[in-house]
């Protein structure tokens, strides 16, 4: 039986928080590690410096992504909590004004003035704070992000993405390594774009085009730097 409790379970919006962090992490892992390796490969005639730079970049990048995602989402959560605390105070000090604000919100959404006021009154009687958090502040269970979840998803995804170009470095010929990296990275990005689009229900060709264009730009610029400062190591 379909109810409001299970109807939204299959909607893509429920995946937005962890999917954003995972796609960002994997994309950054693939592109940044490949770009770093291409830059070093363009200036190196041996495999060891490329492996060293890649492993160092992989470890530092994964930790940086996880820490950055945690700090970013935590800041968002702190802001939401501060607004909720402020709303609690306002509901105690000016309940009538808050009721009118809620009614105006519903009126702007299309309800008649009398209906909007009645809805605001009934929701306030049931749970005034929940109504204001949801409809005035725009905070709900779907939009709320989990710092730990986002950090783990981002760091793990970066590691998985970064390991892919590392495998290419370990097994591809040193001569022409940058070309092997570029070709394989484009394939990895196409796969990532396809998976992300399918999981999020978005347009697959558009996702692939977007991710490969920016990946190509990053790798070309990195290779250019390697050739310009081509000190053999």
From TrEMBL:
Biological process terms from the Gene Ontology for this record are:
intracellular manganese ion homeostasis
User: A single GO CC term, please?
Assistant: endomembrane system
* InterPro entries in UniProt: Ccc1_fam
Per the record, the major location class is membrane
**Where does this one sit in the cell?**
Endomembrane system
Q: Which CDD domains match?
A: Nodulin-21_like_1 (cd02432)
Membrane-crossing residues?
21-44, 50-71, 150-173, 179-196, 208-229
> Which keywords belong to this entry?
Membrane, Transmembrane, Transmembrane helix
A molecular function (GO) held by this record is: manganese ion transmembrane transporter activity
Q: How does it sit in the membrane?
A: Multi-pass membrane protein
- Enumerate the PANTHER family for this protein: FE(2+)/MN(2+) TRANSPORTER PCL1
Q: What is this protein called?
A: Predicted Fe2+/Mn2+ transporter, VIT1/CCC1 family
Organism expressing this protein natively = Epilithonimonas bovis DSM 19482
């Amino acid at each position: 039986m379909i109810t409001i409790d299970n109807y939204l379970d299959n909607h893509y919006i429920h995946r937005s928080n962890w999917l954003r962090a995972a796609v960002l992490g994997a994309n950054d892992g693939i592109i940044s590690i490949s770009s770093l390796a291409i830059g070093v490969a363009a200036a190196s005639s041996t495999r060891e410096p490329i492996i060293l730079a890649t492993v160092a970049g992989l470890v530092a990048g994964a930790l940086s992504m996880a820490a950055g995602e945690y700090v970013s989402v935590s800041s968002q959560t702190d802001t939401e909590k501060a607004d909720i605390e402020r709303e609690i105070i306002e509901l105690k000090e000016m309940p009538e004004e808050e009721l009118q604000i809620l009614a105006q919100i519903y009126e702007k959404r299309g309800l008649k003035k009398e209906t909007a006021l009645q809805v605001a009154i009934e929701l306030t009687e049931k749970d005034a704070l929940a109504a204001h958090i949801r409809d005035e502040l725009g905070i709900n269970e779907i939009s709320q992000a989990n710092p730990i979840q986002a950090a783990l998803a981002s760091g793990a995804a970066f590691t998985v993405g970064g390991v892919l170009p590392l495998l290419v470095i370990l097994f591809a010929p040193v001569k022409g390594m940058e070309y092997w990296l570029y070709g394989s990275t484009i394939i990895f990005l196409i796969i990532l774009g396809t998976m992300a689009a399918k999981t999020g229900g978005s347009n697959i060709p558009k996702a692939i085009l977007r991710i490969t264009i920016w990946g190509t730009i990053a790798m070309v610029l990195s290779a250019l730097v390697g050739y310009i400062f081509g000190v053999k190591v």
